[in-house]
Amino acid sequence: MDxxxxxxxxxxxxxxxxxxxxxxxxxxxxxxxxxxEKIVFGEVPKLRDIGTMNKLLEHLGCKxxxxxxxxxxxxxxxxxxxxxxxxxxxxxxxxxxxxxxxGRFKKAKVSLPGGCAIGTRPIDLHLKNxxxxxxxxxxxxxxxxxxxxxxxxxxxxxxxxxxxxxxxxMMAASLAEGETIIDNxxxxxxxxDLGNFLISMGAEISGLDSKTxxxxxxxxxxxxxxxxxxxxxxxxxxxxxxxxxxxxxxxxGFDPGHxxxxxxxxxxxxxxxxxxxxxVRVGVGELKAVDIxxxxxxxxxxxxxxxxxxxxxxxxxxSIITEQIFENRFMHVPELQRLGADITIKGNSAVVKGxxxxxxxxxxxxxxxxxxxxxxxAFCSEGETLIQRIYHLERGYEKIEEKFKNLGARIERVxx
Length: 416
Ligand code: UD1
Known about the structure:
The protein is an alpha/beta fold. It is built from 14 helices and 24 strands. The strands form 6 sheets. Strands 22-23-1-24 form a 4-stranded mixed beta sheet.
């Protein structure tokens, strides 16, 4: 297994282009199930999670072919209605195929995603609301067995604005009979991107960017050409990297409006960030501590929490970072402590005392965003940091070493 070797401390310089969003593309790929016509996506990032979703779609009978900067998809005939454990266990977002399978083929057998490193992550909201739309759901042998005579529009109220549940229900509703109202829908930009894509296929959707999304079912959805939004989480990671290393960087290829809560917090710490039309320019400066609580969009994203803790190790004063979305999302903390960070966990908060000197050490990736936090902390650590289990990083950061190397980082992949 490869490792990443980083030699710090270091500075970065230049401009980086952010890839299209993994978390937008995963539901978009699942949505290709809804049509028998060809769908083409551009600028699909080369990531392990995208590869897993492609494999799952191929398993279901979809023809997946490279085309231009992305892939084409066409599911004319279903090969099987089963999303098997081997594929679903490696990526929870596989549950996204449930809604479109039920919508178009009226049946699906999807492995339960099970627990994952950052918490139990149930799918009760997906299942309960699909039942309200007329699905019969039985859980047996570790699988969700779902079937329907035909989904019907319903008034759904989510107990929590779950991103995945909102996406699954929007996709299911787009081929259901009648109108579905999803109240307390998630507001994440990836939801709007999925809505816009479904509309490009002929779906009738209103209320995007609001807590009430309305979907009028149609009989058939057509093919489409589409490119997803830029990856706001990848962008936030590079912005934080610039601030941690006190480096002037331009980070391009995303909508800074999608990062309002993050940028506001960073500016309150003293960061010098200029918003551009399609990115930001980060200036050099000293940072002060900050308090943060993660929350559903437009709140501070849980997917930037780990990187933020890494940043707070470089800010003057004591920061308190509270995780409100997932119950076990501090696995990066013991690894950051190995580098010398002064962090104490109190319940679901991390108390970070800034400016403790960091020193290179062997560390281990535990999940995707935790891994990013380790790379950033390694940039500020004296000497060599060897980062293990980087397959977590490959799930969600396209060409991370190449991109950081182009910015001047001393980072390289080493074989075991
Ligand atoms: C998506 C993102 C993930 C991000 C998360 C929160 C993708 C592929 N993944 O994950 O990167 O961290 O949003 O912004 O887009 N919950 C339930 N029951 C359910 C569904 C969710 O209790 O049926 C809970 C979860 O356990 C969690 C919270 O709701 O505590 C948020 O989960 P959700 O918004 O569904 O996240 P995902 O869609 O899994």
